């Protein structure tokens, strides 16, 4: 199993080190990327079939709570993630 936290993801390094091809690539790591990954897993995505290319320094998260609870300190960072870090690890998405 292989997964890279987005903060450490370097596409050039990955390609140089021989990143395997993937069946699906999602460009952009926003809300829809998180929900698309979840739906693909529900539909039987196999390990290593998905890469999400993102310049964000966070996993895909819900935007609406930013202005409703998160900035006021009512929501935690973990509670606004669409999928946990373990989800990406378990399904070997990069
Ligand atoms: C503070 C806040 C409150 C909100 N509240 C509500 C609400 O109450 N109700 C509601 O319906 N909606 C709300 N929204 C809007 C909602 O969050 C968006 O509709 C939703 O995030 C859209 O999801 P998305 O994945 O399409 O876009 P985003 O979540 O914006 O994700 C797009 C991703 O693509 C990346 N990207 C863009 N261009 C490129 C590129 N050229 N190359 C690589 N990556 C790229 C971006 O960096 C980003 O990671 C709110 C938004 C914010 C910011």
Sheet with the most strands?
A: 2 strands, parallel
CATH fold name: FAD/NAD(P)-binding domain
Shape: elongated
Number of strands: 2
Span between N and C termini? 10 Å
Strand fraction equals 5-15%
The CATH superfamily title: FAD/NAD(P)-binding domain
Structural class designation: alpha+beta
Rounded mean pLDDT score: 82
Question: How large is the count of helical segments?
Answer: 4
Helical residues, percent: 25-40%
Number of domains: 1
Spans of at least 5 consecutive residues with low confidence: none
The appropriate CATH architecture is 3-Layer(bba) Sandwich
Bound chemical compounds: flavin-adenine dinucleotide
Radius of gyration using CA atoms only: 14 Å
Order of adjacent strands in the largest pleated sheet: 1-2
N-to-C SSE series? Answer: HEHEHH
CATH class equals Alpha Beta
Report on the structure:
With 94 residues, the chain is of the alpha+beta class. It has a single domain (2-90), classed as 3-Layer(bba) Sandwich (FAD/NAD(P)-binding domain), CATH 3.50.50. It is 33% helix and 9% strand. It has four helices and two strands. The protein has helices at residues 11-16, 31-42, 64-70, 85-90, and strands at 24-27, 50-53. It has a two-stranded parallel sheet with strand order 1-2. The longest helix is centred in the middle third of the chain and has 12 residues, at 31-42. The protein is elongated, with a radius of gyration of 14 Å. The chain starts with 10 loop residues before the first helix and ends with a helix. The model has no long low-confidence stretch (mean pLDDT 82). Bound molecules: flavin-adenine dinucleotide. Residues 27-33, 54-56, 63-64, 66-67 line the site of flavin-adenine dinucleotide.
